[in-house]
Amino acid sequence: MRTRGVLVFVLLAVAGLSAQTFRGTILGTITDPSGAVVAGAKVTAKNTGTGLERSTETSGDGSYSIPELPIGTYNVTVSQQGFQTFVATGVTVDVATERRVDAGLKTGQISTQVEVAGELLPQVETTSAELGGTLTSETIESLPVNGRDYQKLIYLNPGIAGSPDQISDSPGSYGTFSMNGSRGRSNNFLLDGTDMNDGYRNDPAINEAGVCGDPAT
């Protein structure tokens, strides 16, 4: 029984770990002028900063997905024989986010190009019910933060409130904030995908040893 319990714990731990990522996804659906889906269309995402390119083809239902993209700005190109080329420029990919780029192709020569700016794409998250957000370097540099404690910036995201544990007299410090009603010590901290939680109190242990001394090396 003990061995079986350990095995289940390990499997659950691996399953949870595989779902955590510091990259993003571009996905969408391709249709023709009548609204019918377009299968077999080539979709390419190119990172404008690094030149990285990832390509795929739409499936039978006209959908596509390009996962595990490094964060950055991308141009998304959609091409199919008998249709004009569609290009969406300036598509921003953030950590663990899904950016939706749908395209309605127009009939014509593939050499003719229809271009859409990334800021004109829908900004409402429709592919996931998760609450979350991304803080940019511009936000961090320009906003006043109490004591310059970067952890207090978490309150700019939806679903965040003061910790019900009341461990600290400065809400948000030491990682003791409540996320979507959870306990203040139920948060998980990763640095480039690496566990940064103190094994004793489950507080963040970034650049410090913590009680157990294991996490931050």
List the helices and strands and how they pair.
Blueprint: H1 2-18, E1 24-31, E2 42-47, E3 53-57, E4 63-69, E5 72-79, E6 85-93, E7 98-100, E8 103-104, E9 113-117, H2 137-142, E10 160-162, E11 177-179, E12 190-191, E13 194-195
Parallel strand pairs: 1-7, 1-8, 6-9
Antiparallel strand pairs: 1-4, 2-3, 2-5, 5-6, 10-11, 12-13
Explained architecture:
The chain has 217 residues and is mostly beta strands. Among the domains are: 21-120, Carboxypeptidase-like, regulatory domain (Immunoglobulin-like, Sandwich); 137-186, no CATH class. Helices cover 11% and strands 29% of the residues. It is built from two helices and 13 strands; from the N terminus they run αβββββββββαββββ. The chain has helices spanning 2-18, 137-142; strands spanning 24-31, 42-47, 53-57, 63-69, 72-79, 85-93, 98-100, 103-104, 113-117, 160-162, 177-179, 190-191, 194-195. The strands form four sheets. The chain has a five-stranded mixed beta sheet with strand order 3-2-5-6-9, with no helix packed on it. Strands 1, 4, 7 and 8 form a four-stranded mixed beta sheet that branches. A two-stranded antiparallel ribbon has the order 10-11. A hairpin with a 5-residue loop joins β2 (42-47) and β3 (53-57). The radius of gyration is 22 Å and the shape is elongated. The protein starts with a helix and ends in a 22-residue tail after the last strand. The model is unreliable at 1-18 (pLDDT under 50).
